[in-house]
Write a structure and sequence with these properties.
This protein has 4 domains: 1-75, 434 Repressor (Amino-terminal Domain) (Orthogonal Bundle), CATH 1.10.260.40; 79-206, no CATH class; 208-317, no CATH class; 337-408, Serine Threonine Protein Phosphatase 5, Tetratricopeptide repeat (Alpha Horseshoe), CATH 1.25.40. It is built from 23 helices and no strands. It has helices spanning 13-23, 28-35, 39-46, 55-65, 70-73, 84-91, 93-101, 111-115, 119-134, 138-158, 161-184, 188-205, 208-224, 228-245, 250-269, 273-290, 303-316, 320-327, 338-354, 358-371, 373-377, 380-392, 396-405. The chain starts with 12 loop residues before the first helix and ends with a helix. InterPro entries: Cro/C1-type_HTH, Lambda_DNA-bd_dom_sf. GO terms for molecular function: DNA binding. This is HTH cro/C1-type domain-containing protein.
Length: 408
């Protein structure tokens, strides 16, 4: 099932919120009471005078209205016709979705397909897909993922023993790439389907740490819809499992740190500042123990990622000054993924916006766009924040960015 709003291009989150409220025949005061906001805040959201861009703000409104977050944020996003790469990326969604739906079904591969199975070559292609993911090359991902998923599904069906376990590991990686591709394009329900495929494939590998890594994404699914208790239960179970294993290998330390960061995010979105900070500090200790950036199971954990999350978490809490202060100490090596670097600058831009520093916010968003054009233009928080800035002050580069985002 896909979630669609009845909005049109250029709508703000506040306009969509107003329509959802009126559909229930609620007054602004009723929504304010049900969601725990002031009447003034609801009016500011609906009129576009206050950005509705943080999950901690959006999710209480969703719970009150009984809607999915994308009904407020407006996904899936359709890029402007002039954006050729964006159009190319979106055009492949149906093919990726078909490949996901075929998981676990007989492939009915012909003799030529079976003969063509080459696990080393599939390993190279899966690595290339992961590079596209970290490079935020959505158009390229859309072109290569359908065939890769099909070939891996065939390989999983015709191989045996340890080789089959290896193929399922590659399949889990490919499903992770599909999950991120779909999520960034705003196809949230399809991304959830991909996450389920990641879990099933990881379990077929027989590797307990690989299974735990897949549950990191599973926790994220519940976190995204505000089911904090369910997300917390998955995270707590994983951390308890890692403790019982007493595994001090770099892979296990990296995985523990990644779950501590996920726990921090879960608490931040629940507006639990102290708990979020506590888990971030624990992740910092894991990163210090590693002493390097790693990419075990493509989670990119290490000192750099912890520093990036040190900015993201106060942004989630609406603490712009804390985020900007921490951002000054973040050093991003050129070798670090463009996707993560661009997301960092998106967070910095939002932090500057919360501080009323709109020129600095625009500069950060433009830096993010240079690193990862498609991912930045389709980021719900960027679109909402830039739209709010434009409604209060139209000028130069800001309007040009708004046109590329499709919010003007």
């Amino acid at each position: 099932m896909a979630y669609f709003s009845d909005s049109h291009e250029g709508d703000s989150n506040g306009q969509r919120l107003a329509r959802l409220r009126m559909r229930r025949r609620w007054t602004q005061q009723r929504l304010a009471t049900e969601a725990g906001f002031s009447l003034a805040a609801i009016k500011a959201f609906e009129q576009g005078r206050r950005a509705l861009d943080r999950p901690a703000t959006i999710l209480p409104l969703c719970r009150a209205l009984g809607c999915h977050p994308t009904e407020i944020t407006g996904g899936p996003i359709i890029p402007p016709q002039a954006d050729r790469d964006g159009q190319t990326a979106v055009a492949a969604v149906a093919s990726v979705r078909r490949a996901l739906l075929r998981h676990g079904r007989p492939t009915r591969a012909d003799d030529a397909e079976v003969a063509a199975v080459d696990v080393p070559e599939l390993r190279v292609r899966a690595a290339a897909a992961n590079a596209d993911r970290h490079g935020a090359r959505l158009a390229q991902a859309g072109e290569t993922l359908p065939a890769l998923l099909r070939d891996l599904q065939v390989a999983a069906e015709v191989t045996a023993g340890s080789e089959r376990c290896d193929v399922y590991g590659l399949l889990a990686t490919a499903y992770e790439c599909a999950m991120q591709y779909l999520y960034k394009l705003g196809h949230v329900s399809d991304a959830t389907l991909a996450t389920e495929r990641v879990l099933w494939s990881a379990e077929a590998t027989g590797d307990p740490l690989r299974v735990l890594a897949a549950r990191w994404y599973d926790a994220g699914e519940f976190l995204s819809i505000g089911e904090h208790d369910e997300a917390g239960a998955i995270i707590d179970e994983a951390l308890a499992d890692l403790t019982r294993r007493q595994d001090v290998s770099p892979e296990a330390v990296s995985l523990r740190g990644a779950f501590e960061l996920k726990a921090a995010l879960n608490h931040a979105r629940a507006s639990e500042k102290a708990a979020a900070e506590r888990h971030w500090r624990r992740a910092t200790k894991s990163a210090d123990l590693l002493g390097e950036d790693r990419d075990d199971w493509h989670l990119q954990f290490g000192p750099t990622n912890v520093a990036i999350w040190g900015v993201s978490l106060p942004v989630e809490l609406g603490q712009g000054r804390v985020a900007v202060e921490r951002a000054r100490d973040v050093k991003l090596p050129d070798s670090y993924s463009r996707e993560r670097r661009s997301h960092h600058f998106i967070d910095v831009g939002r932090a500057h916006f919360y501080n009323g520093q709109r020129d600095a916010a625009l500069g950060a968003f433009l830096q993010a766009e240079r690193l990862a054009p498609q991912a930045t233009r389709m980021h719900a928080g960027v679109r909402e924040t830039v739209g709010t800035m434009i409604r209060t002050q139209k000028r130069g580069q800001l309007v040009e960015l708004g046109i590329r985002l499709g919010v003007v």
